[in-house]
Amino acid sequence: MTSERAPSGQRVFWRSLETKEHPGQPRELGSDVVKQSIDGPGLLRLRRRQFLSLSGAISALAGISCIRRPVEKIMPYSEMPEDVTVGVPSHYASVLTRRGEAIGVVVQSSEGRPTKVEGNADHPASGGGTDLQAQAALLDLYDSERARTPTLKGTAKAGGDLDAALAELAGQLAGSGGAGLHILSEPSLSPTFLRLRTALAAKLPQAVFRTYAPLNDANERAGARLAFGRPLLAQPRWAAAEVIVALDSDFLMTETGSVEAARGFASGRHMASASARAPNRLYVVEPALSVTGANADHRLSLPAQSIASYARALAAALAAHGISLGSALGAALGRAELAGVPTAWIEAVAQDLAAHRGASLLIAGSRQPAAVHALVHALNAALGNLGKTVAPVSPLDAEQPDPFADIAALVRDMAAGSVQTLVILGGNPVLDAPADVQFKEALARVPLSICLSGHRHETGELCTWHVPQAHALESWADQVSRAGTYSVQQPLIAPLFKGRTDALMLAALGADTERDPHLLVKTTAASFGAVDEPSWQRLLQRGVGTSEATRSATGLSLQEAAIAAAIRALPEPAPPRNDALEVVFLADNKLVDGRHANNAWLQELPDPITRITWDNAALIAPSTAQALGVASGDLIRLTLQGASGSPQPRSIEIVAWVQPGQAQGSIGLPLGWGRKRAGKHALGAGFDVYPLRTSQAPHFALGVKLTRLGVRYPLSQTQEHDLMEGRPLALDATLESYRAQPRFGQTSSPDPAASPLWKTRDYSQGPQWGMAIDLNRCVGCNACVIACQAENNIPVVGKEQIARGRTMAWLRIDRYYVGEDADQPEVAFQPVSCQHCEQAPCENVCPVNGTSHSPEGLNDIAYNRCIGTRYCMNNCPYKVRRFNFLNYNLDIPETQKLVYNPDVTLRFRGVVEKCTYCVQRIERSKIAAQREGRALKDGDVRSACQQACPAEAIHFGDLLDERSAVAQARRVDREYALLAEVGTHPRTRFLGKIRNPNPELKG
Amino acid sequence: MTADHPISEIGEAPLLPAHITPARVSEQVTSVTERPARLGWWLYFGSSLLLFGVLGASVSYLFWEGIGVWGNNSPVAWAWDITNFVWWIGIGHAGTLISAILFLFRQRWRTSINRFAEAMTLFAVICALLFPLIHVGRPWHIYYTLPIPNQMGVWPNFKSPLLWDVFAVGTYFTVSLLFWYVGLLPDLATARDRARSLFRKRVYGFAALGWRGSHRHWRHYERAYLILAALSTPLVLSVHSVVSFDFATSVIPGWHTTIFPPYFVAGAVFSGFAMVMTLMLIARQVFDLEELITLQHLELMNKILLVTGSMVGFAYATEFFVAMSSDNPYERYAFINRATGPYWWAYCIMVTCNVLSPQLFWFRRLRTSVPVMFAVSILVNVGMWFERFVIIVTSLHRDYLPSAWGYFRPTLVDIGCFVGSLGLFFTLFALFLRWVPQVAMFEVKAILPGAQPGHRPQHPDEPRPAPSAVPQPGRQHPEHGDLPAEAVLEPKEA
Questions:
Q1: Cα torsion for B326, B330, B332, B338, to the nearest 10°?
Q2: Would you tell me which residues 39-98 of chain B have a C-beta closer than 8 angstroms to some C-beta of chain A?
């Protein structure tokens, strides 16, 4: 205290009380801190103890950080909307279009956002079912990569700028009568669009209207024009047909009206018991194995160019059975034989058709030339099928020109510089216009181009203006089905990105003064019976109009001479050689023509036939591949030689896939892949085959040379093994053997007599849920798989994870090849999801009781309890359990999160998941029944897969209810349990498939 | 059994050369912990630590991203993770077997190697326990497997073989730890008594739990050791039987096999002995323990390898025979697929290493050649890993529905976790070698010539040990004064 006091009188300098008291003594506590702050970087001057404590703290903190479970926020309504009950979804009728067909749908809306698409049972083109694209439409809607604002030369603009530009343009056009204006649109089913187009054409007489879509019904219309003198569409009545001959027609999957076809075809196949009426018989002649071909009782793979010759030979053979086409036509047919095709395939089919006059059906695919369609019309007429199994209907837009000619004409105008303004309403011609017309090059010569499309895609980015197009689920429109049912497409949500409709664009160009798409549609609806508000409301509610927009064509007379001339004009087929192969352009089973390319659900869905995900491939027959030395996964170059009018050979590079069932010498090329300018899911997926497609040969081309590039390309499949290895899995029987032994299912896979390992549960109290899947009805379209994905928030994992064997699909459709000949396989489809075993092997192995049985017979998983030992996956004989190997719900764009079903938990990484029999639907129905004070009745609960199935192959319900559909289905003699010998007692049962081969046509 | 012929049960030759004295034993063994470590140890420890670091990195990445960083998939939901688990558990068998069963059967030649084997057991079980812990999808909920009372009344599923595993492996680890530690006490006391620094005295003194070597201590010790040996013995059989239930109670072809429990136990003993052999040969070389671990010990172990290897081969053959003569197409396919399917190479490695390579030991010259036995022991380790891989992966990758068949490819993280677990094992072993008396000194002393007082005359070839070196209870030790720890362990006659 007293030491070293400053001498009195001297000034004392101090900076703290301590130093003042003890000026000589260095400050003990905190002196370092002071020093450090003065002397600079302190870390170097740390004392040992400080260093230790700091490093201890650092390492302790390092251990703390960890991936957090996502923070969940609940945002309540501050003001409750009147018509919304949180947790109770509402449903609205609407309509979606698919390649020339309008499918009526009922869309579920959860708190104002559409969360599930179902078929509208009142709509004839749906009948309650949907196709897989309709199921996936939600993800198209919530695609975060859709264009968000109008852009002018790549610069984002406000909607007002666009409106001003359009108003200015409309003013100029009104002055010039539309000179220099060309409008390119897709074939439309919308009366409002057609009405506005007519109005615009009247207002701007000089404007030119063009129509183009890469997949269209031009051949069908032209064929009917040949046969009957006017453009008609064949509207088959599938259920009435007992013998069906499909000539290159994939009517169950990619052709127009596949949902209705699947329903009708499946009902024609139905067998309630062995003694029931025989199912229909399907003959398919096609170049590439399609879903329809997979359902055939007899399938002949033939190059696409030879199909016409087969049709001629068949027609000639029918003449021998008294089915005469008249002398003029008969003379054009030639002989009833075809090189390389067994005579039985002509004779026996002809005999079968002749034996089923009025109950048979021939159908030609849209790839086949008009002459084949005309000949098919003539044959159907001669067989007495017209009006019975097939009814030609007049299309809504009867004046629609041939799109391939139309786009060629447009490009000629563009190249000539006569196109001042090009308005593209939908479509993507830069990608999908025939390669030889060179749309892209011509587009550069157009001073002002306006493109309306959902994405700023290949065409959109080259146009002056790009305008975001509203998705069908967020905009008003109307659509007429092929058979003539009028429906209003009512929006479920306000346009997410302020998108516009094509009708609105026409109106903006001067077709109408109305700018409200709702009123534009309402005006049109008046001519379809919705004359007043109540009828308009009824139309919206029911989703189906009252009057037919198109009608069945009557008073048809065959123009034999024209057909004969067309047949004679058909080129003689040149058998494909290994140095001059045929390529066939296929509508893709998932992406159609490429418009769904950025849909991750569809990308990840394995192709129904090849089981490839995230890619397309050049499909080559095994024998051809062997001859050419090509293996699956080899990169190849396909060069189209000698394309007339083009000195440059066209070529593409693509991965090869050896596909059983492909016609020898013919290569199948699925369209719509290998996008150059698209969202992140579409980019890098597959190979673009449009560069080989020319306007002369848009469907199949000859003289293609294949070169191996010596490079491998990785493909991801969800199913790598194609054969059943002689195991009784997807059981089938011929009609003959079924009748001899109706219970063939049980004998192939007997139940073990061994008593169960653990105490059995009491399943006598209802409801006891069960499922029955009729393999005889299932066509293998995969709509159920996407429905399951949409309903149950199943994540997408990507190509790399699929390659590692980590698909998350709860429901899969196994595809097996049957038979000896790799070039002519039979196909068996089998939808497999959790079988809800009563003696579930997965349950007793879980160490934490994470999966256990509910009193209603469901095999449940408590995600919160699951620790992810994956033992249940191992012990599941059906391999239906899926594990979240990584956090697959990470980095989902906010927009896309709107797609989630609020009734189904999102699963974090590390837990196992699988089919729940849509337990959320069961509970919702139970609550509804309880509120109404009644018991559950059959049909109250429909699983997502069941509801989506267009073929009504899936039954679900209470097994204890004797009259329920599922209980009845399980009493059918074909019923069997998959892998019954394991003793699992599955709740899902299968009904064996019945094949109905023609005894005359062996092998 | 007499004092001069303590090894008469297994041969006429003495177990240890005559010039070994108790003091020499103490010096040789304890000095390892007292001297500064040799360069060899540092190299070994350093590289082990590096591998251990690989484990740390791999597991951190695994926890961060999820099981997806491994190659596991559907249908192969278990792959290297459980392969490693079963492999390590198998290795962990030899220790208890050597210590407990050989102890109960009075196979006194075990004394030179039992400490090794026990330590190896412990470390192997630690490595084994690691894998079930990290292989679950949500390791932070691993405690759900423990029967902890909770207000929701949710219990583990007692039907699940995985839960049986938790108990079986947990029990085995606990008992092995106790057995090892109890056996260590007298030697820890020796280390304490020899300690020259206060720190060493404190640490070893604490670890020795106050062992003074009094008669009462010895009496309790012997009782405890005997009880623990008796407890461990059934565990040797039960642990791997229970592990085999993971597979045997499932419905998967190739797993659902009644032969599994004995087959797994034989395999476990086989692999455990091989691992003891590998480690012992290294330690013998590095620490100059040739005098304590003699060629005779090694030859005896090789005979066991030959026996168990042949048993394992017999099990392989039986499995095939049963599958082929059954009428179960799935079962039959599973076994044909093992040998001829995509994983045929794994099957070939398994058979070559496990069945063929031990057959060399039919020849005495090969059986006594250190390089040969080292090579074979490594091969057996490899082969036994592949056995588990074959059982787990090839059964899973192609089971009932061909549509769900797949193929498993390991990732770098798979390899990192496996190699890293070797790192953990060798790190623990390095620490053990450095700080713990690695040979059971007091037991070795008990089999020295003359250690067991008796009436029979001295063997003519053996020089009589200096009286001061013969440990007697309570006697003054010439060097260290009163050293009760060197008291004779006198096993009771049966």
A1: -150
A2: 63-69, 71-78
